[in-house]
Design goal:
mainly alpha, two-stranded antiparallel ribbon, 2 strands, globular
């Protein structure tokens, strides 16, 4: 068999793995299809005749490497840090980002994968809406997803992308744009019934920004956003649990235990950083230290993270790790915003909307390299990799 045929077969296998990932990202599977695709990509390089097959035209990978290096330094310095946790939550998800270095993504393949992901969101929302209509009482329904916090993070990563692509005139087939928009509409009641307040706030902000930047005639902007508000308001009226959750968004009273518990967690994480400012308490040590030394007497929860990405970084990796994290996200925002202002490119707006929603989610949960939610880090890097390909920041000649 010729080298070209072997490479072609490996490419087909890699794409098959990515298709399977797009259909199973929402649940725990015994096979990590992104890792499998990455391994096949490494094997494929052996058969390349031209080893200079890559062109990289941005500093994104440099800032990601800086983040990984800074956190690695804290693991090396702090003997209490867990290297196995670091490897699992910080290093392993990088395969999703590095796949474009090993596989030639085309625009068509990216849209196929995104359409399959959209299909999962559509079916999941239909199932949640069905549960509600059948009075199947679940306080925080997550449908087919492996936990409501995973669904929360995935909603904020994916739905802004679908909305942006659906309302922009671009070279997507019209039926795909319609399907993306229908997925958004079906998810509106499902998101309300899911009762995750940060999703409500984040999507309200991000959807408004997307619509504002995408529609030139402001009267249409006003009509569309008003329609969304009225629709959401009416859906809230048929869900008493959702109304109760909505009314407690801004409460800091101890009677609202979830909100008050968050404040106690944040104080605990801040105390960890104050007492260990350089390298933190050690990556992977939050739960042990929290239970042993930092838990408030008023707390009623046994938590594994402080429900805030920045405070988690400060507590576990100190200033060294947090600087790498902040520089990475500052650069991601700077590059996408400056590019959009300059070119008004839909690709930049698509990535920026997903990035903003993901960051807002990080205010009340550890959705990035966070305990028991590393699937979100995989998806975040996967989306970032697709963005770098679409912008031609990464060009795989083979």
């Amino acid at each position: 068999m010729s080298k070209e045929k072997i490479i072609s077969n490996l490419d087909n296998l890699i794409f098959a793995c990515l298709v399977l990932y797009s259909l199973t990202f929402f649940t725990a599977t015994p096979i990590n299809f992104l890792v499998t695709a990455f391994i096949l990509g490494i094997i494929k390089i052996v058969f390349y005749e031209n080893k200079n097959f890559l062109e990289i035209h941005s500093k994104h990978l440099i800032f990601i490497s800086l983040f990984i290096l800074c956190t690695f330094i804290t693991v090396c310095i702090n003997t209490d840090a867990s290297f196995s946790y670091y490897r699992s939550y910080y290093i392993s998800p990088l395969v999703a980002l590095l796949l474009p270095l090993l596989f030639s993504f085309t625009y068509k393949k990216i849209i196929i994968l995104l359409t399959l992901i959209s299909l999962i969101f559509f079916l999941n929302a239909c199932y949640i809406n069905y549960q509600f209509m059948q009075n199947i009482i679940i306080e925080r329904p997550d449908g087919f997803f492996n936990g409501y916090m995973l669904l929360c993070g995935m909603n904020l990563l994916i739905l802004p992308i679908l909305l942006t692509l659906s309302i922009h005139k671009n070279n997507l087939p019209k039926y795909i744009r319609i399907f993306f928009f229908v997925t958004i509409l079906v998810n509106i009641p499902a998101i309300i019934f899911e009762n995750t307040r940060i999703v409500w706030v984040s999507l309200f902000i991000v959807f408004f920004i997307i619509i504002f930047l995408s529609i030139n005639k402001k009267i249409y902007l006003l009509l569309i956003f008003s329609l969304l508000i009225i629709t959401s308001y009416n859906i809230f009226q048929i869900s008493p649990n959702s109304i109760n959750r909505l009314q407690t968004i801004s409460s800091t009273n101890s009677n609202v235990q979830q909100n008050y518990e968050r404040i106690l967690m944040w104080h605990s994480a801040l105390n960890m950083f104050i007492e260990h400012p350089i390298t933190g308490i050690g990556i992977g040590n939050y739960h042990k230290e929290y239970v042993s030394h930092y838990r408030s007497p008023l707390s009623k929860e046994d938590t594994w993270h402080p429900h805030n990405v920045l405070l988690s970084m400060l507590a576990q990796s100190g200033l060294i790790g947090t600087i790498g994290y902040l520089l990475l996200f500052i650069y991601l925002y700077y590059k996408s915003i400056s590019n959009y202002i300059k070119d008004k490119n839909i690709i930049d707006l698509t990535f920026l909307s997903s990035l903003l929603a993901f960051s807002l989610n990080g205010l009340t949960d550890c959705n990035f390299v966070g305990h028991n939610l590393k699937e979100l880090t995989y998806m975040f890097y996967f989306i970032t990799g697709m963005y770098l390909v679409c912008k031609k920041y990464i060009i795989n000649k083979n």
